[in-house]
Amino acid sequence: GVERIVRDPFLVDGNSLICVGDVPQGSLVDILTGSRESLLVAADEALMIAESRLAAHGRATTLFLVDCVSRMLFLDDHFAGELALMNMPGVEMVGALTLGEIAGTGRDYPVFYNRTAVVGVFDR
Question: How far is 114 from 20, CA to CA, in rounded Å?
Fold first, then answer.
């Protein structure tokens, strides 16, 4: 299947929708909808996946969280709730709010994403 890449719209200019990140002219787009709750659930799932992958190698000592600033703006007062969900007792949390995240599979060129939460846990 084709991976959907989220672009954050921030301006309507005549008949054009201006987004953070490139959307080639003539591209087929879907309008995605989400709720604050669905974003919080997804962040919690990302943390569980990161923890489970580390479990075989050691105990988490540091949590690294990178959130898109548009995600923080969308969550508004609930952003603190996302950070609280990520709180792991005895584990240092570090991170950043960014203007998007870059990721790749190693098979293709890296891709720029919007409205994502990236979670990593480390044992040292």
Answer: 7
111, 113, 28: which is closest to 68 by C-alpha?
A: 113
Query: How high does pLDDT run on average in the chain?
Result: 85
Report the CATH number of the 34-122 domain: 3.30.2320
Residue type (1 letter), 2? V
Query: Based on the number of CB atoms within 10 Å of its own CB, is 96 exposed (0-12), middle (13-18) or buried (19 or more)?
Result: exposed
Q: What distance in Å separates the CA atoms of residue 37 and residue 39, rounded to the nearest whole number?
A: 5
Global pTM value: 0.72
The Cα 72–Cα 34 span in angstroms is 14
Amino acid at 27: S
Express each pLDDT in 57-106 by its tens digit. 888 899 999 998 888 988 999 999 999 999 888 999 999 998 877 777 67
Q: Provide the pLDDT for residue 2.
A: 64
Cα–Cα distance measured from residue 93 to residue 74, given in angstroms and rounded to the nearest whole number: 22
